[in-house]
């Protein structure tokens, strides 16, 4: 195919070695965006490129890198060779470093040396991920990384020295299945006054955590905990609490838990966290003492609407969030004979009157997952259709495993008869038949 004349003239005017004459900052941006092994291979392009990769401020050692090395050589040998070249040849600061998919290492002494190297070279963003069956004990040098801003750890053991006072400039902290005590975790969080994002996914049982992070914007917790206290969080926008503990104790009352979260926009609670926050409340008409005027998205996962300690706080949150735009509820099926505190029929009958002064003027989308046609479920569907004049779509996915095709058709027939406040509201019911 012939090129246009202007294209030919343009290419003819280019210098013979464009790559060699690119500014260093441009070269660095190019190398950062390719896998580390490819970046190292650019050293054969020219003498000027030979050591360009050695000054890369961002390095990633993950499965992509391991797969590109000679598989016939033992992993520990390949890993040792890579680490050796990094420690010997790299010059300048390393601001971001990712290490993941480590396997078949006899010990972690080489990683200890690597962490020491990073602590002395301005590390700001660090990701360390280790296998579940062999967690990594963080060395003392890790706790001297004074410029750390973003930290993500998976399967690590956190045992700081007594003199450790936290990472003073830390903005983002992610801890996945780390071994850490409640006291150390609380101290780690409380000393990071600039912290904006916090992710805790810890399956080991924790006793009590007091979250004091005045600039916190996002908090995602999954784990076993008996008491989780949230202090003043004026900038908190996103909150997810998934309590996987089979037995929980105490906790703040739902009415006061969100009192110091005026900016909250996204909220996710589950069957474990909802009863804790409710603290046994059975007031079906309750409202929060401080309404969630900024809340836009409410997600309730794996909750049983036939359990009073889960159904009541769910209604409370909906009633106390006048600017909700999206509601998602994933229902967990529980047989009637296994309910601990079933919702009485007279309480279900009170639902319409308890919402007599409530209109969800901003609600546009609703999703129910796992509906079986129980009375509490149907009343909630009916309520949201009747109270949402701007509703656009309601998606209902029935529980296929715990309901017959006949029951699902019966539910569909009943829902189609419910009055709708919004003339545009579409109900999409996947009956599965």
From TrEMBL:
<dbReference type="InterPro" id="IPR006566">
    <property type="entry name" value="FBD"/>
</dbReference>
<dbReference type="InterPro" id="IPR036047">
    <property type="entry name" value="F-box-like_dom_sf"/>
</dbReference>
<dbReference type="Pfam" id="PF24758">
    <property type="entry name" value="LRR_At5g56370"/>
</dbReference>
<dbReference type="Pfam" id="PF08387">
    <property type="entry name" value="FBD"/>
</dbReference>
<dbReference type="InterPro" id="IPR032675">
    <property type="entry name" value="LRR_dom_sf"/>
</dbReference>
<feature type="domain" description="F-box">
    <location>
        <begin position="16"/>
        <end position="69"/>
    </location>
</feature>
<dbReference type="InterPro" id="IPR001810">
    <property type="entry name" value="F-box_dom"/>
</dbReference>
<dbReference type="InterPro" id="IPR055411">
    <property type="entry name" value="LRR_FXL15/At3g58940/PEG3-like"/>
</dbReference>
<dbReference type="Pfam" id="PF00646">
    <property type="entry name" value="F-box"/>
</dbReference>
<protein>
    <submittedName>
        <fullName>Ubiquitin-protein ligase</fullName>
    </submittedName>
</protein>
